[in-house]
């Protein structure tokens, strides 16, 4: 018998937080890190990061929405909103399927267009992100 794919909804307060995050006025790098509450079957807020406590090491989680200050080669600056997904390591297959099954729902709900998947979170560096964003600019 095969497991059916579980798609978790996105918590209402998280939807509102993501909407506000999209239109934030600050020019620093910031991230919203999310996780799945497997009992409620909801994507919920895990943590918010700003420049002061920020490093790519902190981003080595599963669901991340990241506002990144992107300096273009021609000197322009933009602030793309990136969704970075990594499959959870060291958890039960059922939980991995919940994350994989909920990824698209989260992307649609938050209206994200720059969606990146990374297999090994050790590879998540600023250089990796700049390379991925280079395809959009």
Automatic annotation (TrEMBL):
This protein causes differentiation of brain cells, stimulation of neural regeneration, and inhibition of proliferation of tumor cells. This is Glia maturation factor. One of its GO terms (biological process) is negative regulation of Arp2/3 complex-mediated actin nucleation. GO terms for cellular component: cortical actin cytoskeleton. CDD domains: ADF_GMF-beta_like (cd11283). It comes from Rhinolophus ferrumequinum (Greater horseshoe bat). Pfam families: Cofilin_ADF. The keyword Nucleotide-binding does not apply. One of its GO terms (molecular function) is Arp2/3 complex binding. Keywords: Acetylation, Growth factor, Phosphoprotein.
């Amino acid at each position: 018998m095969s497991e059916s794919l579980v798609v978790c909804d996105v918590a209402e307060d998280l939807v509102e937080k993501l909407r506000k995050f999209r239109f934030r006025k600050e020019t620093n790098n910031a991230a919203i890190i999310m996780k799945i509450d497997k009992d409620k079957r909801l994507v919920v807020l895990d943590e918010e990061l700003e420049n002061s406590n920020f490093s790519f090491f902190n981003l080595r989680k599963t669901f991340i929405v990241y506002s990144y200050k992107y300096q273009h080669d021609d000197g322009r600056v933009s602030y793309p909103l990136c969704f970075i997904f990594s499959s959870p390591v060291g958890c039960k297959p059922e939980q991995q399927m919940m994350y994989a099954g909920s990824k698209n729902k989260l992307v649609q709900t938050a209206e994200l267009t720059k969606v990146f998947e990374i297999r090994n979170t050790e590879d998540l560096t600023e250089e990796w992100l700049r390379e991925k964003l280079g395809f959009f600019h």
